[in-house]
Write a structure and sequence with these properties.
two-stranded antiparallel sheet, single chain, mainly alpha, 4 strands, Sidoreflexin, amino-acid transport
């Protein structure tokens, strides 16, 4: 699939397959995209414009690279260049700093350190959400509410872990389990609530819902049910990608502690496992669900049932853009 002929109608890899989606997201979060600036992005856009004008002989790989850079670094509705720190390509390097700091015993046994890193993490998430928002007219009040809820939940949940760990001897199996699970629950819950507040207009009763298309590609309206389906899948993604970088490295330290070299340098080992978990875990988590989802007509509101396609046959499935 790497040599798929360039087009602006489909992606470089087959998004109907899990492996294709993993390869797609691996390229989208490539930290090298942080090096793209306004000048380089203009060159990429000029190359794409030359292709659209019908120019022949343009390198396939260059066209795919140009499209990826433009889509990941330029806001689709405002046309603004997204600041490097708030691009999805900054997710891995930023979390290489955030996750080890957040999960370190010295952090989780300290109230000030726990409060700071949770505040920093949710502030970074809010900035990324805003920079990659679906519309350039998204009200700041909604972003502020989502941010406030996320910070409160993340800090509150992690302080529970801090309180529990202060009552236990460090390095015990029970302390390790608490350190590996309670912060994970707090951070995952905060991420889901942040997402739910940011996109409440898509899934709450009285909201607009999200656009759904029939098998012919015709938009047939906006559905709250599709919005709830989208929220559930995007929430699952956030929980999945936290598992390999927050829970598993900490729990793996229990059996690994029997190895003298690791027992002598536990923080180095756990940090390496966390970075490995992020690198290997985030692309599959993002690939768990296709960006474009299908949903049965019977799962939507009544107005989407018993509709007809252009050829007169019943509309049985709809599609919608899930987002991230």
């Amino acid at each position: 699939m790497a040599n798929r002929e360039f087009s602006d109608k489909y992606t470089k890899y087959n998004m109907d397959t899990f492996s294709g989606r993993v390869r797609y997201w691996t390229e989208c979060i490539n930290p090298l995209l942080l090096l793209e600036n306004e000048r380089s992005l203009q060159k990429h856009q000029m190359l794409l414009d030359r292709w659209k004008s019908g120019e022949k002989g343009l390198a396939n790989a260059d066209l795919w690279a140009a499209r990826r850079a433009v889509e990941q670094c330029i806001h689709p509705t405002s046309g603004d260049v997204i600041p490097p720190l708030f691009r999805m390509s900054a997710f891995l390097p930023m979390n290489f700093l955030i996750v080890p700091t957040m999960m370190a015993p010295a952090t989780l046994t300290s109230v000030p350190r726990t409060m700071f890193i949770q505040w920093f993490n949710q502030t970074f998430n809010a900035a990324v959400n805003y920079a990659n928002r679906s519309s350039d007219k998204q009200p700041m009040s909604e972003i502020g509410k989502a941010y406030g809820v996320a910070v409160t939940v993340a800090c509150g949940g992690s302080l529970v872990a801090t309180n529990m760990l202060k009552k236990l001897p460090s390095g015990t199996v029970k302390a390790t389990i608490i350190r590996g699970t309670v912060p994970f629950i707090a951070v995952s819950t905060a991420s889901v609530l942040n997402l739910a507040f940011m996109r409440k207009n898509e899934w709450m009763s009285g909201g607009k819902g999200i656009k759904v298309k029939d098998e012919d590609g015709t938009v047939r309206g906006e559905s709250i049910s599709a919005g709830r389906d989208s929220l559930a899948k995007c929430s699952a993604t956030r929980i999945i990608w936290n598992l390999p970088c927050m829970v598993l490295p900490t729990l793996f330290m229990v059996p690994l502690a029997s190895i003298p070299a690791i027992r002598a340098h536990p923080l180095v080992t756990e940090t390496a496992l966390q970075m490995l978990g992020l690198t290997l875990g985030v692309p599959p988590a993002l690939a768990a669900f296709n960006i474009n989802q299908t949903i049965g007509a019977t799962s939507l509101e009544k107005e989407f049932q018993n509709l007809k396609r252009k050829d007169g046959t019943p509309v049985t499935t709809f599609s919608y853009y899930k987002g991230v």
